[in-house]
Structure prediction request, 339 residues.
Amino acid sequence: MREPAALITGANGEVGHGLIRSLSANGTRNILALDLQPIDPRIAGLCRETYEGSILDKHLIERIVSEYKIREIYHLAALLSTRAEFTPESAHEVNVEGTLSLLKVALSQGTWQAEPVKFLFPSSIAIFGLPDLGIKAAETKVKEWRWTKPTTMYGCNKLYCEQLGRYYSDHYRQLSDEKEPVTVDFRCLRYPGLISADTLPQGGTSDFAPEMIHAAAQGKPYACFVREDTVIPFMVMPDAIDAILKLAAVEESQLTRRVYNVTSFSLTAGAIRDRVIRHFPGAVVTFEPDLKRQAIVDSWPGDVDDSLARSDWDWEPKYDADSAFADYLVPAISRYYAK
Ligand code: AKB
Prediction:
């Protein structure tokens, strides 16, 4: 008989690495890792199966569900904001069609099993779109429902998929004659800019932070592509993993919504530079704004209100700006490059 399993798409990405390590450490037995690239040997051994292929490959997805009873889906696969701007239609196909395809898998699996399949979906601060720096400065902590007017294909994709998930969980087949059992338990958190010590950034516009830190750890100069005064919310990877696992574990009855803001700390690019130089003396950081990427980051909030995540499912970051550098980033990145 098919064993229960957790499917992680985009498993080779920044969140995928940390998530698979934590799921394995928490005793999740059947971790199925799917990615376009071969799964990193550092995490492949923690998985029951690894699959190399596209979330758009229906035959591959059918093979996976024929072999395992999917109980949870962590759908991490996506083209991030900068990469998506160079291939917007392909980004739509991966980010939206791919998500729709997996929601349908969750629906069919949940129907077969007569029990909802948990669908964890990372959205992003990229779903926000503040029109100018004056409003950005005035909007000190943006709530979930404010300024949801993204300026990137990635942000549009993530915002629409938030709605798709809510539809599949709460409104699917609402005109059906018989009451449809709920078979998709969609849960979404909007990540700020994520900073990981042991994976490299992959095509995001918030990547100036991890790029700056990784360059300094290698003794390389870094030309930052945003202005010194640019400010957005950030989170280090251990908190990002804790947040998605906490949201996955909470009783559904505690949730007052399907989509939550989460954050840890907000910093300007200049303040990140200051911390980098404090921890990596001699680091060379210059500011050479790429005006087009700058405009994207300027449209993102300087901070978000995550009080609903804190009240509904006890979200609480472990790291603030100082401890993120001192206790996680600097020691972990130094170890990463010392190998
Ligand atoms: C990106 O920059 O595209 C991502 C994000 C903020 O979601 N890191």
Summary: The first helix runs from residue 14 to 25. The pocket of 2-amino-3-ketobutyric acid is lined by residues 80-81, 124-126, 154, 191, 193-194, 204-207 (CB under 6 Å). The two ends are 43 Å apart (CA to CA). Residues 12 and 39 are 6 Å apart (CA to CA).
